[in-house]
Design goal:
GO terms for molecular function: actin binding; ATP binding; cytoskeletal motor activity. Belongs to the TRAFAC class myosin-kinesin ATPase superfamily. Myosin family. Pfam families: Myosin_head, Myosin_VII_N. It is found in: Cytoplasm. InterPro entries: Actin_motor_Myosin (IPR051724), Kinesin_motor_dom_sf (IPR036961), Myosin_head_motor_dom-like (IPR001609), Myosin_VII_N (IPR057130), MYSc_Myo7 (IPR036106), P-loop_NTPase (IPR027417). Helices cover 47% and strands 16% of the residues. The strands form 7 sheets. The protein has a 7-stranded mixed β-sheet with strand order 6-7-21-8-17-11-12, with helices on both faces. It is elongated and about 110 Å long. By secondary structure, the protein is an alpha+beta fold. The C terminus is likely disordered. Among the domains are: 59 residues, SH3 type barrels (Roll); 171 residues, Kinesin, CATH 3.40.850.10; 115 residues, Methane Monooxygenase Hydroxylase, Chain G, domain 1 (Up-down Bundle), CATH 1.20.58. The chain is built from 29 helices and 24 strands. The structure holds adenosine-5'-triphosphate.
């Protein structure tokens, strides 16, 4: 923008020069104007110089004021969304709407906004009159359910530490309160949480209480709107954490709670010592977690188990299996004596005996299952010895398998207590708390599954907002038939729909005993290299393939893919657990016994995702996008690049894209007249009324006949180019006006000086030199 059009007091958008993909334009107020640059004050009150070339445009009035619902941003751009969130976050307003989506920024401090009194306010008052809040989402879903009897769902997503679990708990708290019964089943549903957190959450570097699984809690209501039951679905528990943890991270909370809380005699019976004695707990080199009192957590878990009808025997068996896992982790192997092949044996026979006793299996069978592998080929069975390394893998698979099945058992057991729904009730509200899109330095099979889930949810989201946008146009009486929008179906086709899709190829190779990650990858390249969403590997050195996801390109490192997908427990280990005298161990592997062919992890996941998507599609959706404002877990720090990345990964920018495909710029009639009335002759101020016809007259006078703009019931709808034309004209008129004011000022001053000089009878030639002065102009 040319400098003469920049004025003191104006709010502008300015480009950043870093070139970083997440460094988007900043907003600021002009506090000084120079010939080739301006000084602006940004949202953190920091002042900086911006060259005139960096200045993009003036800020829309809605951005200057800030809005509670970003749909009302007259200029719905990524940078406008970010600034609005930043501005509000500084005022401790952590919630902002974008239509039916709620953006929630983690405050990392306890704000006084979750009281029972506030719950009552959101229940009893129109939520539109109250500040955006997670309770409002709870209330809208609950009111919708009561009024329409249509099932509702709330999709909560965001990256680790962004606040998904806290948001889920707040929604449940709200729904329990709105339901107003304080019934036993409500108590049971709330008590499921400490159990799920103990078994499915762990300390990670990003979050001290990170959920390592996804969950969908479907809450059923009866005809009177009271909670009648619930059902929990779990997805993709991170099993690798059982056997190894990154530095600074821990295993699942339950292990530490158990060691801190079990009575002494019980610990003795299970041969348990303190946490630092177990390899599986030492991997991350940290045994404690700030703010957690393990012993009191243990009492809470015990209490919750009781509320959820776990029997004493089941609880005792659970401690027994968890202890066995810890002991299994301490098994070391040494090379065996055979001269023909590499063999291995358990180094500490005392440990072997201890574990066999706890698991109720024969100690010789345990040794064989861990150190040998039966291979089935052409109807024959061959028993192969395992080297020390392979025996260690087998040991880890054993521990992961037991924990994974135990987790499923616990969720099933909770469900059997809380899902006793009688007859057809009013309907349900489902709350989905699921990991957001992930793109790390190293992305493996888990990231592929997570990102596939996010692609599916993204499509669901896009369809919803597109529908909402269309409904908005209809409500405003705008013709929207020419708006088209491309969704992410082609990525879904590549991943899971088209013949020989990515998951189908992984599955196919997983079924071949000799299938390798490499053969899978070369088939993948052959099949998909011409697909627009398939990315060429970064280099020939890394065995990887890339997918252009809605949120950005991700390269997946394929080593280990097939092993993870097979998710297998060797037949020898399976036979071992099925021979156990421990009821729980046998019980949790029951399904394995009946299954002819174990389903791969990806096919299990795809089946549950398909069921989830079907359930969501039958619901009226709400979306909560949680944003982590900084990596330090500290309040009042807003890292712009971090937030921008999350906004993009959240798929929220699709709202902006859909808006761009139609009429992206909107003004209420009053706003429009206030801003542009000087552009045409004889337009009265907005306070005089008749704003719609004033707006029509302005557009007629300024914009070309062919221009595509529309007048809705409450707003003017514009394309970018027309808005720019209006702004340009406004700027030049204000510029002229200011110059005129300066001329007038100059004239008055000279006149006044001459008179003064005359009066003093001093005949001196006065020459006054005026430098151009910039001054703020009226709107
Ligand atoms: N509304 C909130 N008010 C105060 N603190 C919050 C809020 N939301 C989140 N936090 C803080 O942030 C931490 C992380 O939140 P949470 O566990 O909900 O993240 P998450 O998105 O579920 O992460 P993960 O995917 O790792 O499970 C919480 O333990 C809490 O300290």
């Amino acid at each position: 923008m040319a400098n003469q059009k920049l004025m003191l007091g104006d709010y502008i958008w300015a480009k950043q020069l870093s070139g970083d993909e997440f460094d988007i334009p900043i907003g600021g107020k002009i506090v000084a104007v120079e010939s080739s640059r301006v000084k602006i004050q940004d949202d953190d009150q920091k002042e900086m110089y911006i060259s005139n070339q960096q200045v993009l445009k003036n800020m829309h009035v809605s951005s200057i004021k800030g809005v509670e619902d970003m749909i009302n941003l007259g200029d719905l751009q990524e940078y406008a969304i970010l600034r609005n969130l930043h501005k509000r976050y500084k005022e401790k307003l952590i919630y902002t709407y974008t239509g039916s989506m709620l953006i929630a920024i983690n405050p990392y401090e306890l704000l006084p906004i979750y009281t029972n009194a506030l719950i009552k306010e959101y229940r009893n008052q129109n939520t539109e009159d109250l500040l955006p809040h997670i309770f409002a989402i709870g209330d809208n879903s609950y009111s919708n359910l009561k009024n329409s009897a249509k099932d509702q769902c709330i999709v909560i997503s965001g990256e680790s530490g962004a606040g998904k679990t806290e948001s889920t708990k707040l929604i449940l708290q709200y729904l329990a309160s709105a339901s107003g019964q304080h019934s036993w089943v409500e108590q049971q549903i709330l008590e499921a949480n400490p159990i799920l957190e103990a078994f499915g959450n762990a300390k990670t570097v990003r979050n001290d209480n990170s959920s390592r699984f996804g969950k969908y809690i479907d809450i059923k209501f009866n005809k009177n709107g009271n909670i009648e039951g619930a059902k929990i679905e779990q997805y993709l528990l991170e099993k690798s954490r059982i056997v190894s943890q990154n530095e600074g991270e821990r295993n699942y909370h339950i292990f530490y709670s158990m060691l801190a809380g079990l009575p002494k005699e019980k610990k003795k019976q299970l041969d348990l010592l303190d946490a630092n004695n177990y390899e599986y707990l030492r991997g991350g080199k940290v045994l404690t977690c700030d703010g957690r009192n393990e012993a009191s957590e243990f009492s809470d878990i015990m209490a919750a188990f009781k509320v959820l009808n776990f029997t004493e025997k089941e609880m005792s068996d659970i401690w027994c299996l968890l202890s066995s896992i810890l002991h299994v982790g301490n098994i070391r192997f040494r090379s065996g004596a055979s001269s023909h092949s590499e063999t291995s044996e358990i180094a500490d026979q005392g440990l072997n005996e201890k574990i066999s006793k706890l698991l109720g299996v024969n100690k010789f069978d345990l040794t064989v299952a861990l150190t040998k592998r039966t291979i089935y080929a052409s109807g024959d069975q061959v028993v192969a010895n395992l080297s020390k390394e392979f025996a260690s893998d087998s040991r880890n698979a054993f521990a992961k398998g037991i924990y994974g099945q135990l987790f499923i058992f616990i969720v099933d057991k909770i469900n059997s207590a809380i899902s006793q729904v009688k007859g057809r009730g009013r309907g349900s509200i489902g709350v989905l708390d699921i990991f957001g899109f992930e793109n790390f330095n190293l992305n493996s099979f888990e990231q592929l599954c997570i990102n596939y889930a996010n692609e599916s949810l993204q499509q669901f989201f896009v369809q919803h907002i597109f529908k909402m946008e269309q409904e908005y146009y209809t409500k405003e009486g705008i013709n929207w038939s020419n708006i088209s929008f491309i969704d992410n179906q082609q990525v879904l086709n590549l991943l899971a729909v088209k013949p020989l899709n990515v998951f189908a190829l992984i599955d196919e190779e997983s079924k071949f005993p000799n299938g390798t990650d490499f053969s899978m990858l070369s088939k993948m390249h052959k099949q998909h290299s011409s697909h627009e969403s398939y990315l060429k590997p970064k280099s020939d050195m890394t065995p990887s393939f890339g997918i252009q996801h809605f949120a950005g390109g991700v390269f997946y490192d394929t080593p280990g893919f097939l092993e993870k997908n097979r998710d297998s427990f060797s037949q020898d280990l399976k036979n071992l657990v099925l021979s156990s005298r421990n009821d729980l161990l046998k019980d949790i592997f029951k399904s394995e016994q009946n299954a002819k062919m174990k389903k791969t992890l990806s096919s299990q996941f795809r089946t549950s995702l398909e069921m989830l998507m079907n359930a969501l599609n039958a619901c009226h959706p709400f979306f909560v996008r949680c944003i982590k404002p900084n990596e330090f877990k500290k309040p009042q720090i807003f890292d712009r690049a971090l937030c921008t990345r999350q906004l993009r990964y959240s798929g929220m920018m699709e709202t902006a894209k859909i808006r761009q495909a139609g009429y992206p710029i909107r003004y209420s009639y009053i706003e429009f007249v206030d801003r542009f009335r000087y552009l045409a002759k004889g337009i009265p101020p907005s306070t005089k009324g008749g704003c719609r016809s004033s707006a029509e007259n302005i557009c007629k006078a300024v914009l070309e006949k062919r221009s595509d703009y529309q007048f809705g019931n409450t707003k003017v709808f514009l394309k970018h180019q027309d808005n720019e034309k209006l702004e340009e004209l406004r700027r030049s008129i204000l510029d002229r006006y200011c110059r005129y004011k300066l001329d007038l000022y100059e004239f008055i001053l000279i006149f006044w000086v001459s008179i003064h000089v005359e009066i003093s009878s001093l005949y001196i030639n006065v020459r006054i030199f005026f430098k151009p002065i910039h001054t703020g102009c009226p709107n």
